[in-house]
């Protein structure tokens, strides 16, 4: 088994996805520790320009294909590339497409799998990862069992790695020849676009999140105004999503999305462990809550005790005034 770190890099509309550039940087760091190279398995429209991943740390890129088709249909060349190179590990994003391809690699090559993980490192030539269990209350550390000499497949949560852009270009190559197989027969039957008002939380630098204390859809309209003033987007706790006040795509937490914004403002959110798992890596956390004993106050950088409906309008007013709008 080699020392290279492979990663799945999805392209769409001619550009790499956020997960692709995150994993490029992550793979580069791990490859430095393992003494190998960071190698992308690029696929999707625009993947032919995968040399650009070199700016984020990739040494090489194997282009599986650049057509607009289901990700799982690229499984055969991905399997062939991993079988031929036998890298130390394959990083896959914890996205629907990433999960599909990761499952195909694990099932086709009988590889050990871990995840979804929140941290990955190489220690003494072995891949070690961390993941949360029991609704985020326990963090476990895992690595391949002694005697296992196969690449480890790791499903990586969004924002586990922070992209670092620099100079350089990845060397581009084609995959080893592989029989198309059953995976290539997969086709898209229907498409259902997400609601236009749902933003990409994983990429947001500012998030204004609401919980049960927001009280309803009207309350989230107020949070949207604050998010707009800050150039951010709105998120929510599971309680708010379960109540139907916002789409589930905005849910943050153990059963929702994991985010890593520069600024996270939690309004009317208690901060239970299930929610904390999804946002605890935010650089700055501000909480607004009536309850001075709310758990979120234990880890917030700034905890404002009070009525969000009195505080948020004044905050919006001050932000707009300072921006001159």
Verbal overview:
With about 325 residues, this protein is of the alpha/beta class. The chain has two domains: about 5-185, Rossmann fold (3-Layer(aba) Sandwich); about 200-325, TPP-binding domain (Rossmann fold), CATH 3.40.50.1220. The protein contains seven helices and 16 strands. The strands form three sheets. Strands 1, 2, 3, 4, 5, 6, 10 and 11 form an eight-stranded mixed β-sheet that branches. Helix 2 (about 75-85) packs across helix 3 and helix 4 (about 215-230) packs parallel to helix 7 (about 310-325). The protein is elongated, with a radius of gyration of 21 Å. The termini are far apart. The model has no long low-confidence stretch (mean pLDDT about 90).
Defining key terms:
alpha/beta, 16 strands, Rossmann fold, eight-stranded mixed beta sheet, 2 domains, elongated, 7 helices, 325 residues, 25% strand
Secondary structure layout:
Blueprint lengths: L4 E8 L2 E2 L1 H17 L3 E6 L16 E6 L9 H11 L3 E5 L2 H14 L3 E5 L1 E5 L2 E8 L4 E5 L9 E5 L14 E3 L32 E5 L6 H14 L2 E4 L1 H5 L20 E5 L5 H7 L4 E6 L12 E4 L2 H16 L2
